[in-house]
Specification:
Blueprint lengths: L15 H14 L23 E2 L13 E2 L10 H15 L3 E2 L6 E5 L6 E5 L1
Antiparallel strand pairs: 1-2, 3-4, 4-5
């Protein structure tokens, strides 16, 4: 509903200083750096308890005039970036990553057996 539930649409993004810090440490320690892109990221975000309905796009038969209930977020929804960040953060924490103290979008995983460190910047 326009004007309702839009007060929490902010999604954190990685700070330039966090990215530079990670790159500087990786360079100093001669770590490998890999970049990936999560395709259709917003479609992997959970709606939770929200119920969002949309009308079908023009040209799609809809003889009874029903609205469609979304089960996942779509690109263009105002709260989709925040939902994606919450979904991704929950996944990272579940698998043992910690949020870096200097940036909410940087995650760290330290392997106590090998000493290997994984830094992920979103």
């Amino acid at each position: 509903v326009k004007g309702i539930d839009f007060d929490e649409s902010f999604a954190p993004t990685a700070h330039a200083t966090g990215i530079r810090t990670v790159l500087a440490v990786a360079n100093a320690e001669d770590w490998d750096i890999t970049q990936i892109d999560v395709e259709q990221a917003f479609l992997n975000s959970e709606m939770g308890d929200k119920e969002v309905y949309v009308m079908p796009p023009d040209g799609v038969p809809n003889p009874r005039g029903f609205a469609w209930r979304l089960r996942k977020f779509l690109y263009g929804q105002k709260d989709a970036p925040r939902a994606w960040h919450q979904t991704f953060k929950a996944w990272m924490l579940r698998y043992g990553f910690e949020v870096a103290g200097f940036d909410e979008c940087t995650y760290i995983l330290k392997d106590p057996n090998t000493g290997e460190v994984q830094l992920i910047v979103v």
